[in-house]
Structure formats: C-alpha cells, structure tokens
Amino acid sequence: MSKTPLTLEMERAVWKHTKKTGVFGCFEVTIGNLGHERVDFLTLDTKGVWRCYEIKVTKQDFRSNAAQTFVGNYNYFVMPFDLYEQVAQDIPEGVGVYVPTRGIVKPPKRQELGAPVDLLYRSMIRSMSRDVDEAAKVRGENSSYFERLRIKLGERQRRMREEVRRLRERDSSYYHMIVQQRLKNAELRRNLYKVTGTSTRILERGINQ
Questions:
Q1: pLDDT tens digits, one per residue of 82-104
Q2: Which range of residues forms the domain containing residue 33?
C-alpha cells in the first residue's frame, strides 16, 4: 500500500529531527527474524539509547488495530498538531509526542527496553541492509539510464563534429575555387596585355563608352 503525502511528510520531518551526530536511524524496522512487530522509525545513539517513533496521520490510523511497537528506552508518536489535539487524552502514559511544526509537545518517560538489546541490534542491521540493497538497485537503474544517455550524447557530439568538419571542407573547397578563378583571371589579363599592349581596364572603359 502506497504512503500518503502526509505520511511521507511526517517521515521526512522525524528524519530531520533525529539527524544529529552520533544518532543512527532506520525506517520500518521489523523486530526479530520473523517478527510481526514493526517500528516505523528506530534510532540508536552512541550512548546506547533506543528511541521508537510511530507515525500516525489520522484518528482512524491512531485507533487502528495495528500494533504500536514501543520497545525503546523512549517512545514517541509522530503526528500533525490537529490530530494531537483530538487524541491527546488517549496517548498512553510515558509515550511522548513529536509534532513537526511544534517539536516535542509531550515528553516521553524513560523505560526499560521492550526487547533484548541484541535482538534490536540484529533487527536494525537487517533493515539497514535492506535499505542499502534498495539504494543500490535504484543507483544501478539510474546508472544504466545515465550510461545510455552518455552514449547518446557521445553519438550526437560525434555527428556534430563530422558536420562541422564537412562544412569546413566545403568552405575550404569554395575558397580554393575562388582563388583559382582569380588566378586564372589575372593570368588572362597578363596575356591580353602582352598581345594588345593595353590593360583590360582600358579596354573595358572603351567598350563601355
């Protein structure tokens, strides 16, 4: 099922919110090898603190039967402010709320991890590997596209160079023809002068008169 524009907006917002030195995050982390619980966004910092973020964009989404996987030391809902105003009283104790336009509107409380730490590590690494594979695939597809584009551009450049060379050769031939014609005319004038003793310019004036 494709994500709505608002869901994608929430994802971008929480990613920017957590993009800090020493914080590592991953979207859609399935807990366990065959687990049915999935964290929308999971982060781990260099102090070993785990944070879970669940994205909700509608009241129906908030009240759905989909599991809310809060297994981190700190857990948050990520939602628009208007939705927060509607469901504020239903948010569990200890769970925080992050609103992109307002920041943290409800601070979370620290709790013990809801899953073994080694399981969280394995789950996050597996999900990061999935993202790398997808990125590599997209990069490979784009590389193929740009390679085809590069080849096509090279062919066009080659044709342009050939056309420029052809035009230069044509212009050179035309220029050579004009020079040869002028040389012939000059030779004709010299021969005519030798025979008549009169330059062609004087003859031309006499004819014109």
A1: 999 999 999 999 999 999 999 99
A2: 5-116
